[in-house]
Design brief:
Shape: globular
Number of helices: 16
Helix content: over 70%
Strand content: under 5%
Structural class: mainly alpha
Radius of gyration: 21 Å
């Protein structure tokens, strides 16, 4: 809901696509600076305590913006400041939350657990954006009311974490510095070509393609003339596609087919962006958004599942933080993409984004055909299959 309200407010205050990009860059810069540290802390500290503190900061940040809106004191620079604080919070929340999955389920179920988390997130996006669009249009609620609702949601999410186990880090024989931990995490990814390919593909897709979300307010208002209601509908149709795709991905997230499906989903996502850019009206736009949301959600789910299930437990926080740098770069790329959209038009920009995504993924797959990547992938698949068989035998014995 807050994504819709923030984007609509930024565009309403300025009337510029570059303003939507500026809000995203404010969110992305602190993630880029602090993201790797988030992974280091997730592997060194109790994850529950780290999540509780950061979620509380995010909740208070949301409350501040809500109050400014209600007092009619809100200005665009405040959205920038709030974006910086929220980006800093998520730089630590993201790696800790993903790595926590490895503490809560057996290794053989990590892939499906990651997809389940993705499903829960996408499910909230089915109704949330539509509610936000509807509430924004109601004068007694408006954008300020939506921000108060989301603030309450942030506090509730924080309190539910009290029921989690501590998520203590794995015991270590040798004490090393945080800097050494960070360097060790980077080396770990560099020396495992299959994981490196997953990370680089995520960079290409998320960094270039996912900024489409930032510009839906412009698409709804300027292209389709549909206002906040149309924006909510576009978001919700995309979420419906994401939920359906995530359910499908869950059926093979732990199998060899996942490795073949990952690049196909990435390329198809780029094609769906081209389709959205060519959609002539709201109805075609909604159909295109089902494909965009579905392929984005399917790719994200399968990529995260493969990354987590292929990573040794001691490194999961750091590997996730490296992978999530793509989200900070997504924020950074949103600003120049916004300038391009102001210059040539948002529909033309969406088409260009889709073409760049498809081209980048194809080039990465050519790199992925090397013997080193193939051998490393086979080794990781074999290790996971062996672990799954051992877990199944142990369960049968019990």
């Amino acid at each position: 809901m807050q994504v819709v309200a923030r984007g609509y407010l930024a565009y309403d205050l300025t009337g510029k696509n570059s303003a939507l990009g500026a809000v995203m860059i404010a969110f992305g810069v602190p993630q880029l600076i602090l993201g790797l540290w988030g992974g280091v802390l997730a592997d060194r500290l109790p994850k529950r305590n780290l999540l509780l503190f950061c979620q509380m900061v995010i909740a208070l940040n949301s409350a501040w913006v809500a109050i400014m809106i209600e007092l009619d004191r809100i200005e665009f620079w405040m959205l920038i400041v709030a974006g910086v604080v929220q980006g800093a919070g998520f730089a630590f929340v993201g790696p800790a939350r993903q790595a926590f999955i490895g503490d809560l389920v057996d290794r053989s179920a990590v892939g499906n657990a990651v997809v389940l988390q993705q499903l829960s997130m996408n499910s909230t996006r089915v109704i949330g954006p539509s509610l936000a669009g509807a509430f924004i249009a109601i004068s007694v609620i408006g954008i300020g009311g939506v921000y108060f609702m989301t603030t309450l949601g942030f506090f509730l999410a924080t309190f539910t974490m009290l029921r989690l186990p501590p998520g203590n880090p794995k015991p270590r024989e040798d004490k090393v510095s945080p800097f050494a931990d960070m360097a060790d995490g980077v080396r770990y990814v560099k020396n495992r070509p299959s994981i490196l390919l997953l990370v680089l593909t995520s960079f290409a897709v998320v960094m270039v393609g996912f900024p489409y979300q930032s510009f839906l307010p412009s698409v709804a208002k300027d292209v389709y003339g549909a206002g906040s209601g149309g924006l909510g509908a576009l978001q919700s149709f995309g979420a419906i596609g994401a939920v359906a795709a995530t359910l499908l991905v869950a059926t093979f997230a732990q199998s060899k087919r996942a490795w073949a499906a990952q690049p196909l989903l990435a390329i198809a996502f780029g094609g769906s962006l081209v389709g959205l850019g060519l959609a002539p009206n709201l109805w075609f736009g909604l159909l295109a958004m089902v494909a965009v949301g579905g392929l984005a959600g399917g790719f994200q789910g399968i990529n995260n599942a493969l990354t987590m299930s292929s990573t040794d437990s001691a490194y999961q926080g750091r590997v996730q933080s490296i992978s999530m740098l793509s989200w900070s770069l997504f924020g950074l790329f949103a600003l120049p993409i916004g300038f391009v959209a102001d210059a040539i038009g948002i529909q033309e920009t969406l088409v260009l984004m889709g073409i760049v995504v498809m081209t980048a993924v194809v080039l990465l797959q050519l790199f992925g055909r090397s013997e080193a990547v193939t051998a490393d992938r086979r080794a990781r698949v074999s290790a996971l299959e062996r672990h799954t068989a051992e877990a199944g035998a142990a369960a049968g014995g019990r």
